[in-house]
Structure formats: structure tokens, C-alpha cells
Amino acid sequence: MRGAEELLREIPAVEEILNWPELRELLARTSRKFLTERVREVLAGLRQQIRDGQWPAAAPAISHTFLQTRIREAVDAALSHSLRPVINATGVILHTNLGRAPLARDALQHAAEVAGQYSNLEYDLDKGRRGERDSHISGLLRSLLGAPAAIVVNNNAAAVLITLNTLAEGGEVIVSRGELIEIGGSFRIPEIMAKSGATLREVGTTNRTRISDYQNAITERTKLLLRVHPSNFRIIGFTEKPSLEELVGLGRKASIPVFEDLGSGCLVSMAAQGIQDEIPVGESLAAGVDVVSFSGDKLLGGPQAGVIAGKKDLVERIRRNPLFRALRVDKLTYSVLASTLQAYWLDRPERIPTLRMIQMTQQEVGERAQRLLAACAPHGDGPLRLELVDGKSVIGGGSAPGQTLPSRLLALRHAEQSATVLETRLRGWQPPVIARVEEDRVLLDLRTVLPEQEEALREAILSLASG
User: Which domains does the chain carry?
Assistant: First the structure.
């Protein structure tokens, strides 16, 4: 029986390992410094394993092959990106934890072309002098929204912050108590307002606010009337709130701008899919709202961004705010956003993955699930059982709260393993598969699985049958 000290003496020195011919190709594709760090990590872990008594004394000697394997695994782990693609089989279309909206192929291609070369980001090619970076999207936004002016910052929280700071710093902003929301990441309207330098003036109650509540709260300090999208919750039952037209009318009468934070910001009606609470941005502006803001990576289906659109004089004031430079977006965001908006401009919403998923019918989802089931069926004699069941998808991302889309799900059960174990195994697959677990079943919703990911998903499912 070998003791710990004898085992420790069998471990080669770092320099000796680095000179092994078998590791030359690792040196060639990394660097000596990088490989030295990995070797030291492996040896330190091995020494700790021996000292903790986790290395069997009767085990064979610590061989070159064993160490090479450990070192290669350490190199592969270090070189793998932390941020990587996953298969979203949850049925949550705008899954915040999974990156929200997947981007259109045209948008990705345009971004790669722009990012890999110099570009005219802030250069006017016609005039041969410095230009404005938002010129690349302002025309598209004006055309799509019917807005006199539009600019972009790095997310909708930033859009709300800079709008409040520009238009209401030192004054009061009137908002209904029922709209003092908090969304994911502890984004709270009252806290954003405090940071903007504006003072919150709450009116009404949580469930009922009338136009008279706004009117009675107006003073000489009032700078803005604010309406906020309810995001990821709904108030139902004994409720009341003024129409947008009433709020706009009051703003006109009192010469106070109306600002609407639309949150998700859809550009097209989704009434055909049963989504009633998401009013298209253009309708809000057409109703007379002075300034709106909304997200780029939710229902719009583009990159993370915050769009501000509305009256030209107000938008120009926001652009001149020193915060605008701190919150501006880069060439990647502009290129992806421009390509996404172009799909709307050309009336080609099918190019945008988010809209395709929302518009997919239950029958279409079911047909995809049936094909996947059939592709797995020849291997279905083992402990893994697959069946199709009715279910529901959700939009997510703080959009259309309480509303669902009918779907058909692929349900997995295992005779020897729990659904939790199956879910863990799928999550550990490459690429990872993120699924739902309900009633000791793993549920896979093909609505949110991209077509090019179906083969990888099939392989992941079949892997469950083998263990």
C-alpha cells in the first residue's frame, strides 16, 4: 500500500510535463504561459485529492496518459466560452435569463460585416464630415412609428432615466399608484425617478385612478404626466384608469408633456394571436403622446436597446443631455437594430424569430413536435417514454402578462430516473437544453426551438435513453 507521500513523489515537475512531446500541439495552439497555468491547476488538484485520501492507494501509478487527459480537459474547459448558445425548449419566447429575443440572420450578417471592418458610424459620406450615429436608424423609426424624431440608448431603463432627467428634473412627475412597477433586476420606477432628479407625485389607488386624480394633482411644479406599461403583472376586477386620449387631452390643456413608457414596445398588432394588452407604439404616438420609450430586445425582436420617439423638440432636448453620450449604443447595436427595423419596413416580419414564434399556431408547433417524436421513436423501446400533450407557451420578458399561446409539448418520462434528473442531464448536454418540469415530466416546447437546433435536440433526447 502506497502512502500519500509516495504518491506525491510520483507527480512529475511542471517543466518536465511541458516538455512532453505529446503536449506540443497544445503549446502550438495556446501559449507556454497559458499551458503552464493549466498544468499547475491540474497538479494542485491532484495533490489535494491525494492529501484528502481520495486517491486509491492500490491504484496504478500516476501515468503520463492520465495527466495528459487531465491537462487536455483543463485546457478545453479554460478555452470554452462562458456565454454560449443553448436550446430554449421552455416555451418562454422572450426568456430574460436566456437572452430574450434571438436575432434575425440578416441582422447578424450585417453586424458581422460592419464589425469586421471600418464603418461610417459617425461619418456623413455625402458631406464628407462628421455625422450622427443615430442617423442610421432615425429614418426607419420615423417611418415605422410616424414619429417626428427618434433616438436610441442602451436599454429602456436608460431611456426612462434620461427622458425623466431631461424633461422633469427639479419638478414633479404625476403617475398612477397602479403603475409604480418593479420588473426583473429590481428595476423600480420610483427609484429611477429619484435618480433622474424628478419628484414622484402619486395619484389614485392601486386599482382605480381617474383623470380627475391627475388633474387635481397638477401644480406649477408639474413637468410631466407619465403612463407606465404594467409589464409582468395585471390588475383585474374592480379597476379603472383614464384612456390615453383623456391623458393626452389633459396634457394639452395644461401644456404638460405626456410620456408613455411602453416597456415591450411592439410595432405590429398581435390581436390575431390573442394578445390584447400590447398596443403598437405607432398607435400611442397617433393618440397624441408626446414621447414614448420601449425596448429593442423584447417584442420588437432586436438587440438590447431603448428607443425614444416623439415630438422633435423634446427628443432633441433629450439628445443634448450629457447623459446621452454615457448611454449611447455601439455600431453592433445600430447595425442589428437597423436590419431588424428594415424587416418591418419591408413588411417581412417572418424574418424576425420572435414574431415567427408568436405567430406559430398550435397545429404548427404540434407538427414539429410530432416529427421530432417520430425521429426518436425507433429508439423508444427502452426506459424513456415520449408522448405529445397539450400545453401553453408564454411570451415572457415582461410582455403580455397573464396571456398564453396554445401549444403542443413533447413530454418525457423515464422508468428509472426522475424528471429532475432528466432535466439536469439535458442541461449538461452540449449544447445545453433548457426545459420545463411539471408533474414529474420533462416538457419540451418546440415553439422556442430554432429549426436548425432540432437535430441537436433529438440527439440530446436519445442520450437520455442510453443511461
Answer: 4-79 (no CATH), 87-95+357-465 (3.90.1150.110), 105-348 (3.40.640.10)
